[in-house]
């Protein structure tokens, strides 16, 4: 039996639209009291490890959770503007991959700070900051992709004017390793909430009630996934 299913499904997309932006904003606000540049971020990690771990983890989780939302928005745009949808969607997704790559370096720096101190971590980061890697050549996608996708969303009426502007503000978000919070960081993540959260809530409200089989499978899957997540930390 054929359906109108589009990967990864309406409910997953709705959760992505709501939680992704909210977690990004939460992580941004949690580290907002500390200065922006990496030496200050490393010192903050040494002085407030729990808070900074929570901040960077929330930001990373929000960044990873965004991909279904971007996929859904690009698909909607592509029904009338496929070229814009392709370029905007690809650029934003590559930008999300790059921020995830940066988050791995952030995590390594946090580990260095905890084990060897902020001064040692700062010397390592400063010496390797300009090292070339694949994503060095793709950094433009982190910012530019949001502008293309926002323009496409406005042109196709996938989003209204205000929400398209909110989407575009994500292009203001600073990029790179161990970047803290500036006012543009708050504007960008709050703008993303304006752009996507209402749509996510709308999708959830419009989704059909899950079947008993779906609920049962979900209940059974949750503890299994929890056990797999725990097992993953052992290797």
UniProtKB/TrEMBL annotation:
Keywords: Membrane, Transmembrane, Transmembrane helix
Keyword Transmembrane helix: yes
Transmembrane segments: 12-30, 50-71, 83-101, 132-154, 161-177, 183-205, 214-234
Protein name: Uncharacterized protein
């Amino acid at each position: 039996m054929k359906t109108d299913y589009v990967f990864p499904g309406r409910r997953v997309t709705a959760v992505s639209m709501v939680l992704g932006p909210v977690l990004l904003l939460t992580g941004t606000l949690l580290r907002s009291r500390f200065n922006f540049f990496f030496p200050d971020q490393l010192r903050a990690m040494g002085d407030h490890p729990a808070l900074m771990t929570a901040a960077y983890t929330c930001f990373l989780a929000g960044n990873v959770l965004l991909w279904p939302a971007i996929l859904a928005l690009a698909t909607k745009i592509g029904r009338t503007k496929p070229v814009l949808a392709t370029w905007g969607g690809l650029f934003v997704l590559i930008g999300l991959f790059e921020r995830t790559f940066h988050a791995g370096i952030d995590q390594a720096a946090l580990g260095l700070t905890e084990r060897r101190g902020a001064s040692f971590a700062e010397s390592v980061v400063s010496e390797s900051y300009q090292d070339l890697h694949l994503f060095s050549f793709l950094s433009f996608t982190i910012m530019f992709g949001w502008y293309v996708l926002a323009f496409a969303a406005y042109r196709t009426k996938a989003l209204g004017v205000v929400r398209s502007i909110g989407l575009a503000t994500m292009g203001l978000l600073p990029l790179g390793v161990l970047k803290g919070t500036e006012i543009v960081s708050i504007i960008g993540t709050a703008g993303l909430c304006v752009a996507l959260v209402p749509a996510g809530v709308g999708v959830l409200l419009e989704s059909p009630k899950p079947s008993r089989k779906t609920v049962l499978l979900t209940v059974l899957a949750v503890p299994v996934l929890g056990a797999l997540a725990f097992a993953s930390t052992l290797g």
